[in-house]
Amino acid sequence: MPISTEDSRWVLDIILATMEGARQRRRFVEFEWLQNYRAYQGWPSYSYIFPLPDGAIHYFIPHARRTIERGSSRIKKLLLPRNKFFQTIPRDLFSYEAHMNAGAVDGLLDFIYSEKIDRNTVIGGLVRSLQLYDFSVLGTSVKVEKDEVWPSQTAKDPFSFYVFPDTAINRDEAQLIFEDIVIPYQVYYSFVDRDNPDTSLYEYIPVDKFKNPVWPYHLVERLAYRGLSSPSDFMQGTGNYTRRTEADLRDISTKVITSLTEQSRKFVQASKVYFRIQSTWYYCVVAYNLEEPCLLRLDEEENTPLYRWTVERPLPGELYVSSQMDDIRELQSLSNNALSQVESNRSVVAEPPVARDRNQATRTEQYVYKPRAIWDVEGDPNNIFKNIEVKDTGPEGIRAFQIYLGLMDRGNGGTIAEGQPGRNMPRAGFAVNNLVNLSLADTEDSATCIESGLLTPGMSDVYHVCIEYIPTSQILQIPGKAGQAPRAFNKLDLRGSYTFKWQCALEFRDTQQVADSLMKLFEILANPQTIQLLQMQGYSINFQELIQTLYVYSIGEEGLVDIITKAQPVQQGMQPGQMPMQGNPVQNGLQGPSGQQNGTQAAIPPQIQQMLQSLQTQGVPTNGTR
User: Is pLDDT above 90 for 431?
Assistant: First the structure.
Protein backbone atom coordinates (compact mmCIF):
# COMPACT_ATOMS: atom_id res chain seq x y z
CA MET A 1 0.00 0.00 0.00
CA PRO A 2 1.26 3.57 -0.59
CA ILE A 3 3.40 5.03 2.18
CA SER A 4 3.18 8.70 3.01
CA THR A 5 6.36 10.74 3.05
CA GLU A 6 5.78 11.89 6.60
CA ASP A 7 5.36 8.34 7.93
CA SER A 8 8.41 7.17 6.03
CA ARG A 9 10.63 9.95 7.38
CA TRP A 10 9.35 9.43 10.92
CA VAL A 11 10.02 5.67 10.89
CA LEU A 12 13.47 6.05 9.31
CA ASP A 13 14.48 8.61 11.93
CA ILE A 14 13.58 6.09 14.63
CA ILE A 15 15.29 2.95 13.34
CA LEU A 16 18.24 3.83 11.02
CA ALA A 17 20.65 5.15 13.65
CA THR A 18 19.85 2.29 16.02
CA MET A 19 20.38 -0.30 13.29
CA GLU A 20 23.76 1.07 12.25
CA GLY A 21 24.88 1.22 15.88
CA ALA A 22 23.91 -2.43 16.38
CA ARG A 23 25.98 -3.43 13.33
CA GLN A 24 29.08 -1.54 14.43
CA ARG A 25 28.98 -2.74 18.04
CA ARG A 26 28.94 -6.38 16.96
CA ARG A 27 31.97 -6.13 14.64
CA PHE A 28 34.39 -7.69 17.12
CA VAL A 29 32.01 -10.60 17.76
CA GLU A 30 31.71 -11.18 14.02
CA PHE A 31 35.51 -11.22 13.67
CA GLU A 32 35.59 -14.11 16.15
CA TRP A 33 32.83 -15.85 14.21
CA LEU A 34 34.81 -15.47 10.97
CA GLN A 35 37.84 -17.13 12.55
CA ASN A 36 35.64 -20.04 13.61
CA TYR A 37 34.16 -20.25 10.12
CA ARG A 38 37.67 -20.17 8.63
CA ALA A 39 38.76 -23.11 10.78
CA TYR A 40 35.56 -25.03 9.98
CA GLN A 41 36.07 -24.60 6.24
CA GLY A 42 39.56 -26.10 6.42
CA TRP A 43 41.63 -22.92 6.39
CA PRO A 44 44.52 -22.62 8.88
CA SER A 45 44.60 -19.89 11.49
CA TYR A 46 46.77 -16.79 11.18
CA SER A 47 49.46 -18.36 13.41
CA TYR A 48 50.11 -20.83 10.58
CA ILE A 49 52.51 -18.36 8.94
CA PHE A 50 54.96 -18.58 11.88
CA PRO A 51 57.62 -21.30 11.48
CA LEU A 52 57.83 -24.17 13.92
CA PRO A 53 60.77 -24.18 16.39
CA ASP A 54 62.64 -27.01 14.62
CA GLY A 55 61.90 -25.71 11.12
CA ALA A 56 59.41 -28.51 10.41
CA ILE A 57 57.00 -28.28 7.50
CA HIS A 58 53.49 -27.19 8.43
CA TYR A 59 50.78 -29.76 7.78
CA PHE A 60 47.12 -28.84 8.19
CA ILE A 61 44.29 -31.32 8.68
CA PRO A 62 40.80 -29.87 9.38
CA HIS A 63 40.12 -31.77 12.61
CA ALA A 64 37.67 -29.04 13.70
CA ARG A 65 35.30 -29.77 10.84
CA ARG A 66 35.28 -33.47 11.68
CA THR A 67 34.61 -32.69 15.35
CA ILE A 68 31.74 -30.31 14.56
CA GLU A 69 30.13 -32.75 12.13
CA ARG A 70 30.36 -35.59 14.64
CA GLY A 71 28.63 -33.49 17.26
CA SER A 72 26.07 -32.26 14.73
CA SER A 73 25.07 -35.78 13.73
CA ARG A 74 24.60 -36.83 17.36
CA ILE A 75 22.52 -33.76 18.24
CA LYS A 76 20.32 -34.28 15.16
CA LYS A 77 19.79 -37.88 16.19
CA LEU A 78 18.61 -36.69 19.61
CA LEU A 79 16.28 -34.09 18.10
CA LEU A 80 14.73 -36.49 15.57
CA PRO A 81 14.40 -39.76 17.49
CA ARG A 82 11.57 -41.13 15.32
CA ASN A 83 9.15 -40.11 12.59
CA LYS A 84 6.67 -38.62 15.08
CA PHE A 85 8.83 -36.17 16.99
CA PHE A 86 6.31 -33.77 18.55
CA GLN A 87 3.09 -33.64 20.58
CA THR A 88 -0.07 -31.54 20.20
CA ILE A 89 -1.95 -31.22 23.47
CA PRO A 90 -5.29 -29.37 23.79
CA ARG A 91 -5.65 -26.99 26.68
CA ASP A 92 -9.13 -28.39 27.42
CA LEU A 93 -8.26 -31.97 28.34
CA PHE A 94 -11.81 -32.88 29.40
CA SER A 95 -13.56 -32.10 26.10
CA TYR A 96 -13.96 -34.87 23.55
CA GLU A 97 -14.22 -32.33 20.72
CA ALA A 98 -10.95 -30.73 21.85
CA HIS A 99 -9.14 -34.05 21.49
CA MET A 100 -10.75 -34.57 18.08
CA ASN A 101 -9.57 -31.15 16.84
CA ALA A 102 -6.14 -31.74 18.41
CA GLY A 103 -5.81 -34.87 16.30
CA ALA A 104 -6.54 -32.82 13.17
CA VAL A 105 -4.01 -30.12 14.13
CA ASP A 106 -1.48 -32.81 14.95
CA GLY A 107 -1.99 -34.39 11.52
CA LEU A 108 -1.65 -30.99 9.80
CA LEU A 109 1.64 -30.19 11.53
CA ASP A 110 2.93 -33.66 10.74
CA PHE A 111 2.12 -33.08 7.08
CA ILE A 112 3.77 -29.63 7.07
CA TYR A 113 6.99 -30.83 8.71
CA SER A 114 7.12 -33.83 6.38
CA GLU A 115 6.22 -32.22 3.04
CA LYS A 116 6.53 -28.42 3.27
CA ILE A 117 9.49 -27.88 5.61
CA ASP A 118 12.86 -29.57 5.16
CA ARG A 119 13.35 -30.29 8.83
CA ASN A 120 16.72 -32.02 8.39
CA THR A 121 18.23 -28.97 6.67
CA VAL A 122 16.71 -26.58 9.21
CA ILE A 123 17.89 -28.54 12.24
CA GLY A 124 21.33 -29.09 10.70
CA GLY A 125 21.76 -25.33 10.18
CA LEU A 126 20.62 -24.57 13.73
CA VAL A 127 22.98 -27.12 15.26
CA ARG A 128 26.03 -25.96 13.28
CA SER A 129 25.31 -22.30 14.04
CA LEU A 130 25.08 -23.12 17.74
CA GLN A 131 28.39 -24.97 17.72
CA LEU A 132 30.27 -22.47 15.54
CA TYR A 133 28.91 -19.19 16.91
CA ASP A 134 26.76 -20.13 19.94
CA PHE A 135 23.95 -18.18 18.28
CA SER A 136 21.14 -19.93 16.39
CA VAL A 137 18.21 -18.14 14.77
CA LEU A 138 14.99 -19.74 13.50
CA GLY A 139 12.68 -17.74 11.24
CA THR A 140 9.10 -18.60 10.29
CA SER A 141 7.44 -17.03 7.26
CA VAL A 142 4.94 -17.71 4.48
CA LYS A 143 5.50 -19.21 1.05
CA VAL A 144 3.15 -19.53 -1.92
CA GLU A 145 3.13 -22.75 -3.96
CA LYS A 146 0.70 -23.14 -6.87
CA ASP A 147 -1.82 -20.66 -5.43
CA GLU A 148 -1.57 -22.31 -2.01
CA VAL A 149 -0.22 -20.64 1.13
CA TRP A 150 1.93 -22.68 3.50
CA PRO A 151 4.24 -21.95 6.44
CA SER A 152 7.98 -21.93 5.89
CA GLN A 153 10.83 -22.25 8.37
CA THR A 154 14.53 -21.63 7.77
CA ALA A 155 17.70 -21.35 9.83
CA LYS A 156 18.80 -17.73 9.51
CA ASP A 157 22.35 -16.50 8.96
CA PRO A 158 23.61 -15.25 12.36
CA PHE A 159 25.84 -12.68 10.62
CA SER A 160 22.79 -10.95 9.09
CA PHE A 161 20.49 -11.04 12.13
CA TYR A 162 20.57 -8.29 14.77
CA VAL A 163 18.62 -7.43 17.91
CA PHE A 164 18.54 -4.31 20.03
CA PRO A 165 19.39 -4.02 22.84
CA ASP A 166 22.38 -6.30 22.41
CA THR A 167 21.58 -8.10 25.66
CA ALA A 168 18.07 -9.29 24.66
CA ILE A 169 18.05 -13.07 25.04
CA ASN A 170 14.47 -13.48 23.77
CA ARG A 171 11.77 -11.66 21.84
CA ASP A 172 10.11 -10.21 24.92
CA GLU A 173 13.22 -8.23 25.88
CA ALA A 174 13.94 -6.84 22.40
CA GLN A 175 12.88 -3.45 21.08
CA LEU A 176 14.25 -3.78 17.54
CA ILE A 177 14.78 -6.92 15.44
CA PHE A 178 16.07 -6.78 11.87
CA GLU A 179 17.63 -8.99 9.23
CA ASP A 180 19.81 -7.72 6.36
CA ILE A 181 19.01 -9.23 2.96
CA VAL A 182 20.13 -8.79 -0.64
CA ILE A 183 17.65 -10.19 -3.16
CA PRO A 184 17.39 -10.00 -6.97
CA TYR A 185 15.21 -7.25 -8.31
CA GLN A 186 12.91 -9.77 -10.02
CA VAL A 187 12.12 -11.36 -6.66
CA TYR A 188 11.19 -7.98 -5.25
CA TYR A 189 9.18 -7.08 -8.35
CA SER A 190 7.14 -10.32 -8.12
CA PHE A 191 5.49 -8.95 -4.94
CA VAL A 192 4.67 -5.57 -6.50
CA ASP A 193 1.20 -4.91 -7.94
CA ARG A 194 1.47 -1.82 -10.12
CA ASP A 195 -2.17 -2.04 -11.23
CA ASN A 196 -3.53 -1.93 -7.68
CA PRO A 197 -1.04 -0.27 -5.30
CA ASP A 198 -3.39 -0.67 -2.34
CA THR A 199 -2.98 -4.47 -2.43
CA SER A 200 0.74 -4.44 -3.33
CA LEU A 201 3.07 -5.92 -0.74
CA TYR A 202 5.86 -3.47 -1.57
CA GLU A 203 6.17 0.05 -2.92
CA TYR A 204 7.12 0.09 -6.59
CA ILE A 205 10.53 1.57 -7.46
CA PRO A 206 11.90 1.43 -11.06
CA VAL A 207 14.99 -0.65 -11.69
CA ASP A 208 17.08 2.31 -12.83
CA LYS A 209 16.74 3.91 -9.38
CA PHE A 210 18.70 1.12 -7.69
CA LYS A 211 22.49 1.42 -7.46
CA ASN A 212 25.14 -1.22 -7.01
CA PRO A 213 24.60 -3.04 -3.69
CA VAL A 214 27.30 -2.96 -1.06
CA TRP A 215 27.70 -6.61 -0.13
CA PRO A 216 28.40 -7.24 3.57
CA TYR A 217 32.06 -7.78 4.35
CA HIS A 218 31.39 -11.06 6.16
CA LEU A 219 29.55 -12.48 3.13
CA VAL A 220 32.38 -11.53 0.75
CA GLU A 221 34.98 -13.13 3.03
CA ARG A 222 33.00 -16.34 3.46
CA LEU A 223 32.50 -16.64 -0.29
CA ALA A 224 36.23 -16.07 -0.82
CA TYR A 225 37.06 -19.12 1.33
CA ARG A 226 35.20 -21.21 -1.25
CA GLY A 227 36.85 -19.44 -4.21
CA LEU A 228 33.76 -17.38 -5.12
CA SER A 229 33.43 -13.67 -5.74
CA SER A 230 30.49 -11.45 -4.80
CA PRO A 231 27.24 -12.15 -6.69
CA SER A 232 27.46 -8.79 -8.48
CA ASP A 233 30.52 -9.93 -10.43
CA PHE A 234 29.48 -11.22 -13.84
CA MET A 235 31.66 -12.64 -16.62
CA GLN A 236 30.66 -12.65 -20.26
CA GLY A 237 32.30 -14.54 -23.09
CA THR A 238 32.47 -13.34 -26.71
CA GLY A 239 33.05 -16.73 -28.33
CA ASN A 240 35.84 -17.11 -30.91
CA TYR A 241 38.19 -14.16 -30.95
CA THR A 242 38.43 -12.18 -34.18
CA ARG A 243 40.66 -9.25 -35.08
CA ARG A 244 38.93 -5.98 -34.20
CA THR A 245 39.77 -2.34 -34.57
CA GLU A 246 40.29 0.03 -31.68
CA ALA A 247 36.84 1.54 -32.24
CA ASP A 248 35.24 -1.92 -32.09
CA LEU A 249 37.01 -2.71 -28.84
CA ARG A 250 35.88 0.62 -27.37
CA ASP A 251 32.28 -0.09 -28.33
CA ILE A 252 32.42 -3.62 -26.88
CA SER A 253 33.91 -2.27 -23.66
CA THR A 254 31.13 0.28 -23.34
CA LYS A 255 28.46 -2.39 -23.91
CA VAL A 256 30.03 -4.70 -21.33
CA ILE A 257 30.22 -1.93 -18.73
CA THR A 258 26.61 -0.96 -19.41
CA SER A 259 25.49 -4.59 -19.21
CA LEU A 260 27.33 -5.19 -15.95
CA THR A 261 25.89 -2.02 -14.47
CA GLU A 262 22.36 -3.01 -15.38
CA GLN A 263 22.85 -6.51 -13.98
CA SER A 264 24.28 -5.23 -10.72
CA ARG A 265 21.32 -2.91 -10.34
CA LYS A 266 19.01 -5.90 -10.35
CA PHE A 267 19.66 -6.39 -6.67
CA VAL A 268 17.74 -4.86 -3.81
CA GLN A 269 19.74 -4.33 -0.64
CA ALA A 270 17.25 -4.09 2.21
CA SER A 271 16.47 -4.94 5.81
CA LYS A 272 13.37 -6.56 7.26
CA VAL A 273 12.73 -4.64 10.46
CA TYR A 274 10.43 -5.25 13.41
CA PHE A 275 10.25 -2.36 15.89
CA ARG A 276 8.16 -2.00 19.00
CA ILE A 277 6.33 1.06 20.23
CA GLN A 278 5.26 0.45 23.83
CA SER A 279 3.85 -3.11 23.67
CA THR A 280 2.92 -3.22 19.97
CA TRP A 281 5.18 -4.60 17.24
CA TYR A 282 5.29 -3.11 13.73
CA TYR A 283 6.94 -4.34 10.54
CA CYS A 284 8.68 -2.46 7.72
CA VAL A 285 11.18 -3.06 4.90
CA VAL A 286 13.99 -0.55 4.27
CA ALA A 287 15.92 -0.35 0.97
CA TYR A 288 19.45 1.12 0.99
CA ASN A 289 20.91 1.09 -2.52
CA LEU A 290 19.00 4.19 -3.60
CA GLU A 291 19.79 7.89 -3.47
CA GLU A 292 18.70 7.71 0.17
CA PRO A 293 17.13 4.97 2.30
CA CYS A 294 13.49 4.38 1.49
CA LEU A 295 10.64 2.35 2.97
CA LEU A 296 9.32 -0.37 0.67
CA ARG A 297 6.66 -1.53 3.12
CA LEU A 298 5.12 -0.36 6.38
CA ASP A 299 2.46 -2.29 8.27
CA GLU A 300 0.26 -0.03 10.32
CA GLU A 301 -1.25 -2.98 12.18
CA GLU A 302 0.32 -5.11 14.86
CA ASN A 303 2.68 -7.74 13.45
CA THR A 304 4.50 -9.99 15.91
CA PRO A 305 8.00 -11.01 14.74
CA LEU A 306 8.31 -14.71 13.99
CA TYR A 307 11.98 -14.99 14.93
CA ARG A 308 13.40 -17.22 17.65
CA TRP A 309 17.03 -17.23 18.78
CA THR A 310 18.95 -18.99 21.51
CA VAL A 311 22.44 -19.41 22.96
CA GLU A 312 23.89 -22.48 24.61
CA ARG A 313 25.71 -20.71 27.46
CA PRO A 314 23.40 -17.88 28.56
CA LEU A 315 24.71 -15.34 31.05
CA PRO A 316 22.60 -12.71 32.82
CA GLY A 317 22.80 -9.48 30.88
CA GLU A 318 24.69 -10.98 27.90
CA LEU A 319 23.66 -12.38 24.54
CA TYR A 320 26.95 -13.03 22.72
CA VAL A 321 29.21 -15.45 24.60
CA SER A 322 32.03 -17.81 23.63
CA SER A 323 31.18 -20.86 21.57
CA GLN A 324 32.42 -24.43 21.52
CA MET A 325 34.34 -23.68 18.33
CA ASP A 326 36.52 -21.11 20.15
CA ASP A 327 38.15 -23.98 22.04
CA ILE A 328 38.23 -26.37 19.11
CA ARG A 329 39.92 -23.79 16.87
CA GLU A 330 42.94 -23.41 19.16
CA LEU A 331 43.15 -27.14 19.82
CA GLN A 332 43.18 -27.72 16.06
CA SER A 333 46.26 -25.49 15.72
CA LEU A 334 48.03 -27.32 18.54
CA SER A 335 47.19 -30.76 17.13
CA ASN A 336 48.43 -29.82 13.65
CA ASN A 337 51.65 -28.38 15.07
CA ALA A 338 52.24 -31.56 17.07
CA LEU A 339 51.55 -33.75 14.04
CA SER A 340 53.86 -31.63 11.87
CA GLN A 341 56.70 -32.01 14.37
CA VAL A 342 56.09 -35.74 14.63
CA GLU A 343 56.28 -36.11 10.86
CA SER A 344 59.45 -33.99 10.71
CA ASN A 345 61.15 -36.07 13.40
CA ARG A 346 60.00 -39.32 11.79
CA SER A 347 61.61 -38.41 8.48
CA VAL A 348 64.89 -37.54 10.21
CA VAL A 349 64.91 -40.72 12.31
CA ALA A 350 64.12 -42.84 9.24
CA GLU A 351 66.96 -41.26 7.25
CA PRO A 352 69.38 -39.78 9.80
CA PRO A 353 72.23 -37.47 8.78
CA VAL A 354 75.57 -39.08 7.79
CA ALA A 355 79.01 -37.94 8.97
CA ARG A 356 81.90 -38.26 6.50
CA ASP A 357 85.67 -38.24 7.01
CA ARG A 358 86.83 -35.58 4.52
CA ASN A 359 90.44 -36.81 4.65
CA GLN A 360 89.51 -40.22 3.26
CA ALA A 361 86.45 -39.34 1.14
CA THR A 362 87.24 -36.16 -0.74
CA ARG A 363 84.78 -36.26 -3.68
CA THR A 364 81.61 -35.02 -2.04
CA GLU A 365 79.38 -34.87 -5.13
CA GLN A 366 79.33 -38.67 -5.61
CA TYR A 367 78.12 -39.51 -2.10
CA VAL A 368 74.39 -39.14 -2.72
CA TYR A 369 71.59 -41.48 -1.63
CA LYS A 370 69.95 -43.12 -4.65
CA PRO A 371 69.00 -46.62 -5.82
CA ARG A 372 71.95 -48.85 -6.81
CA ALA A 373 74.41 -46.08 -5.97
CA ILE A 374 78.16 -46.99 -6.02
CA TRP A 375 80.52 -44.99 -3.84
CA ASP A 376 84.27 -45.22 -4.46
CA VAL A 377 86.12 -44.99 -1.15
CA GLU A 378 89.67 -45.69 -0.08
CA GLY A 379 89.71 -47.81 3.04
CA ASP A 380 86.99 -49.22 5.29
CA PRO A 381 83.60 -47.48 4.67
CA ASN A 382 82.64 -48.10 8.30
CA ASN A 383 85.48 -45.82 9.33
CA ILE A 384 84.65 -43.15 6.74
CA PHE A 385 80.82 -42.89 7.04
CA LYS A 386 78.78 -43.00 10.20
CA ASN A 387 75.07 -42.36 10.86
CA ILE A 388 74.45 -39.74 13.52
CA GLU A 389 72.00 -40.89 16.16
CA VAL A 390 68.92 -38.65 16.42
CA LYS A 391 66.59 -38.77 19.41
CA ASP A 392 63.18 -40.12 18.43
CA THR A 393 60.57 -37.72 19.86
CA GLY A 394 57.76 -39.42 17.95
CA PRO A 395 56.11 -41.16 20.95
CA GLU A 396 55.93 -37.89 22.94
CA GLY A 397 54.55 -36.07 19.89
CA ILE A 398 51.95 -38.76 19.21
CA ARG A 399 50.91 -38.66 22.88
CA ALA A 400 50.48 -34.87 22.72
CA PHE A 401 48.57 -35.19 19.44
CA GLN A 402 46.18 -37.72 20.98
CA ILE A 403 45.63 -35.50 24.00
CA TYR A 404 44.68 -32.56 21.78
CA LEU A 405 42.29 -34.69 19.74
CA GLY A 406 40.75 -36.07 22.94
CA LEU A 407 40.13 -32.55 24.21
CA MET A 408 38.50 -31.63 20.89
CA ASP A 409 36.19 -34.66 20.96
CA ARG A 410 35.42 -34.50 24.67
CA GLY A 411 32.48 -32.16 24.17
CA ASN A 412 30.85 -34.67 21.81
CA GLY A 413 31.30 -37.76 23.93
CA GLY A 414 34.79 -38.85 22.92
CA THR A 415 35.64 -42.44 22.06
CA ILE A 416 33.29 -43.85 24.70
CA ALA A 417 30.32 -42.50 22.72
CA GLU A 418 31.58 -44.42 19.67
CA GLY A 419 31.54 -47.74 21.53
CA GLN A 420 35.26 -47.79 22.33
CA PRO A 421 35.85 -47.74 26.12
CA GLY A 422 39.30 -46.62 27.13
CA ARG A 423 41.98 -48.70 28.76
CA ASN A 424 41.10 -50.01 32.24
CA MET A 425 37.47 -48.93 31.74
CA PRO A 426 34.53 -51.20 32.63
CA ARG A 427 33.12 -53.40 29.88
CA ALA A 428 29.79 -54.44 31.43
CA GLY A 429 26.68 -53.30 29.59
CA PHE A 430 25.09 -51.21 32.34
CA ALA A 431 28.42 -49.60 33.28
CA VAL A 432 29.21 -48.65 29.69
CA ASN A 433 25.70 -47.28 29.30
CA ASN A 434 26.22 -45.03 32.32
CA LEU A 435 29.55 -43.85 30.95
CA VAL A 436 28.00 -43.07 27.55
CA ASN A 437 25.22 -41.05 29.20
CA LEU A 438 27.75 -39.07 31.21
CA SER A 439 30.03 -38.46 28.24
CA LEU A 440 27.11 -37.15 26.16
CA ALA A 441 26.04 -34.60 28.79
CA ASP A 442 27.23 -31.65 26.67
CA THR A 443 25.59 -33.06 23.55
CA GLU A 444 22.30 -33.57 25.37
CA ASP A 445 22.51 -30.03 26.74
CA SER A 446 22.90 -28.65 23.20
CA ALA A 447 19.93 -30.69 21.98
CA THR A 448 17.79 -29.51 24.91
CA CYS A 449 18.79 -25.90 24.23
CA ILE A 450 17.67 -26.07 20.58
CA GLU A 451 14.52 -28.00 21.47
CA SER A 452 13.29 -25.66 24.21
CA GLY A 453 14.53 -22.40 22.71
CA LEU A 454 13.77 -22.84 19.00
CA LEU A 455 11.84 -25.92 17.89
CA THR A 456 9.05 -25.98 20.47
CA PRO A 457 8.17 -22.26 20.11
CA GLY A 458 8.74 -22.62 16.37
CA MET A 459 5.83 -25.06 16.19
CA SER A 460 3.60 -22.41 17.75
CA ASP A 461 4.78 -19.98 15.06
CA VAL A 462 3.90 -22.49 12.33
CA TYR A 463 0.42 -22.91 13.77
CA HIS A 464 0.08 -19.11 14.00
CA VAL A 465 1.01 -18.74 10.32
CA CYS A 466 -1.55 -21.39 9.37
CA ILE A 467 -4.36 -19.65 11.22
CA GLU A 468 -3.33 -16.11 10.31
CA TYR A 469 -2.24 -16.26 6.66
CA ILE A 470 -3.79 -19.32 5.03
CA PRO A 471 -6.98 -18.16 3.29
CA THR A 472 -10.28 -19.61 4.41
CA SER A 473 -11.01 -20.83 0.91
CA GLN A 474 -7.93 -23.09 0.92
CA ILE A 475 -8.84 -26.71 1.70
CA LEU A 476 -6.28 -28.49 3.85
CA GLN A 477 -5.95 -32.14 2.87
CA ILE A 478 -4.59 -33.98 5.91
CA PRO A 479 -3.43 -37.54 5.14
CA GLY A 480 -5.24 -40.20 7.16
CA LYS A 481 -3.93 -43.39 8.69
CA ALA A 482 -3.71 -46.67 6.84
CA GLY A 483 -7.08 -47.65 5.46
CA GLN A 484 -8.59 -44.20 5.94
CA ALA A 485 -9.26 -41.48 3.41
CA PRO A 486 -7.59 -38.05 3.76
CA ARG A 487 -9.46 -35.54 5.89
CA ALA A 488 -10.40 -32.12 4.51
CA PHE A 489 -10.50 -28.99 6.65
CA ASN A 490 -10.17 -25.27 6.37
CA LYS A 491 -8.38 -23.13 8.90
CA LEU A 492 -11.58 -22.27 10.80
CA ASP A 493 -11.96 -25.94 11.73
CA LEU A 494 -8.50 -25.90 13.33
CA ARG A 495 -8.89 -22.86 15.56
CA GLY A 496 -8.37 -23.55 19.22
CA SER A 497 -6.02 -23.34 22.16
CA TYR A 498 -3.21 -25.88 21.97
CA THR A 499 0.16 -26.56 23.54
CA PHE A 500 2.91 -27.88 21.28
CA LYS A 501 5.90 -29.87 22.44
CA TRP A 502 8.89 -30.96 20.38
CA GLN A 503 9.98 -34.31 21.78
CA CYS A 504 13.65 -35.09 21.38
CA ALA A 505 15.07 -38.44 22.40
CA LEU A 506 15.42 -37.31 26.02
CA GLU A 507 11.82 -36.10 26.28
CA PHE A 508 10.58 -39.22 24.50
CA ARG A 509 12.42 -41.41 27.00
CA ASP A 510 10.94 -39.53 29.96
CA THR A 511 7.46 -39.75 28.43
CA GLN A 512 7.85 -43.50 27.98
CA GLN A 513 8.79 -43.82 31.64
CA VAL A 514 5.61 -41.97 32.62
CA ALA A 515 3.60 -44.23 30.31
CA ASP A 516 5.14 -47.33 31.89
CA SER A 517 4.22 -46.05 35.36
CA LEU A 518 0.66 -45.36 34.22
CA MET A 519 0.45 -48.87 32.79
CA LYS A 520 1.36 -50.34 36.17
CA LEU A 521 -1.29 -48.12 37.77
CA PHE A 522 -3.82 -49.35 35.19
CA GLU A 523 -3.07 -52.97 36.10
CA ILE A 524 -3.70 -52.21 39.78
CA LEU A 525 -6.94 -50.33 39.15
CA ALA A 526 -8.23 -53.01 36.78
CA ASN A 527 -8.07 -55.58 39.55
CA PRO A 528 -11.66 -56.55 40.62
CA GLN A 529 -10.65 -56.45 44.26
CA THR A 530 -9.49 -52.84 43.85
CA ILE A 531 -12.76 -51.94 42.14
CA GLN A 532 -14.80 -53.58 44.91
CA LEU A 533 -12.76 -51.89 47.63
CA LEU A 534 -13.25 -48.47 46.03
CA GLN A 535 -16.99 -49.10 45.72
CA MET A 536 -17.25 -49.95 49.40
CA GLN A 537 -15.57 -46.61 50.21
CA GLY A 538 -17.86 -44.67 47.85
CA TYR A 539 -15.49 -44.17 44.91
CA SER A 540 -15.40 -45.29 41.29
CA ILE A 541 -12.78 -45.35 38.52
CA ASN A 542 -13.03 -43.21 35.42
CA PHE A 543 -11.49 -45.69 32.97
CA GLN A 544 -12.15 -43.44 29.99
CA GLU A 545 -9.91 -40.70 31.37
CA LEU A 546 -7.31 -43.23 32.58
CA ILE A 547 -7.01 -44.98 29.22
CA GLN A 548 -7.02 -41.65 27.42
CA THR A 549 -4.19 -40.31 29.57
CA LEU A 550 -2.22 -43.53 29.12
CA TYR A 551 -2.63 -43.33 25.34
CA VAL A 552 -1.62 -39.67 25.13
CA TYR A 553 1.55 -40.20 27.15
CA SER A 554 2.57 -43.33 25.25
CA ILE A 555 1.63 -42.47 21.65
CA GLY A 556 0.04 -39.01 21.50
CA GLU A 557 -3.14 -37.45 20.21
CA GLU A 558 -2.88 -39.15 16.83
CA GLY A 559 -5.65 -41.74 16.50
CA LEU A 560 -7.08 -41.16 19.97
CA VAL A 561 -10.56 -40.20 18.72
CA ASP A 562 -10.71 -43.43 16.73
CA ILE A 563 -10.11 -45.53 19.84
CA ILE A 564 -11.96 -43.58 22.55
CA THR A 565 -15.39 -42.90 21.00
CA LYS A 566 -18.69 -41.79 22.43
CA ALA A 567 -20.95 -44.67 23.49
CA GLN A 568 -24.21 -45.50 21.75
CA PRO A 569 -27.51 -44.63 23.48
CA VAL A 570 -28.38 -47.04 26.29
CA GLN A 571 -30.74 -49.79 25.12
CA GLN A 572 -34.05 -50.25 26.89
CA GLY A 573 -33.93 -52.72 29.76
CA MET A 574 -30.19 -52.27 30.36
CA GLN A 575 -28.66 -50.87 33.52
CA PRO A 576 -26.68 -47.57 33.15
CA GLY A 577 -23.33 -49.22 33.76
CA GLN A 578 -24.01 -52.47 31.84
CA MET A 579 -22.16 -53.19 28.60
CA PRO A 580 -24.22 -54.27 25.56
CA MET A 581 -23.85 -57.97 24.81
CA GLN A 582 -24.39 -59.66 21.50
CA GLY A 583 -24.94 -63.42 21.62
CA ASN A 584 -23.59 -65.43 24.50
CA PRO A 585 -20.56 -64.59 26.65
CA VAL A 586 -18.46 -67.07 24.72
CA GLN A 587 -18.82 -65.05 21.50
CA ASN A 588 -17.76 -61.90 23.32
CA GLY A 589 -14.61 -63.46 24.72
CA LEU A 590 -15.74 -63.03 28.36
CA GLN A 591 -15.92 -66.66 29.45
CA GLY A 592 -12.37 -66.85 30.75
CA PRO A 593 -9.04 -68.27 29.67
CA SER A 594 -10.68 -71.34 28.16
CA GLY A 595 -13.35 -69.37 26.25
CA GLN A 596 -13.33 -69.73 22.49
CA GLN A 597 -14.22 -67.03 19.98
CA ASN A 598 -14.87 -68.29 16.43
CA GLY A 599 -12.71 -71.30 17.10
CA THR A 600 -9.72 -69.35 18.44
CA GLN A 601 -8.40 -68.51 21.89
CA ALA A 602 -9.98 -65.39 23.45
CA ALA A 603 -7.82 -62.28 22.94
CA ILE A 604 -8.86 -60.52 26.17
CA PRO A 605 -6.61 -61.34 29.15
CA PRO A 606 -8.30 -63.06 32.12
CA GLN A 607 -7.69 -60.07 34.43
CA ILE A 608 -9.43 -57.67 32.05
CA GLN A 609 -12.26 -60.17 31.54
CA GLN A 610 -12.90 -60.32 35.29
CA MET A 611 -12.86 -56.52 35.44
CA LEU A 612 -15.43 -56.27 32.63
CA GLN A 613 -17.66 -58.91 34.22
CA SER A 614 -17.47 -57.01 37.51
CA LEU A 615 -18.54 -53.83 35.74
CA GLN A 616 -21.55 -55.61 34.22
CA THR A 617 -22.76 -57.40 37.34
CA GLN A 618 -22.17 -54.56 39.80
CA GLY A 619 -23.13 -51.67 37.48
CA VAL A 620 -19.98 -49.60 38.04
CA PRO A 621 -20.24 -46.44 35.90
CA THR A 622 -17.33 -45.68 33.58
CA ASN A 623 -17.78 -41.91 33.33
CA GLY A 624 -16.50 -41.04 36.78
CA THR A 625 -19.92 -40.75 38.55
CA ARG A 626 -22.05 -43.06 40.69
Answer: no
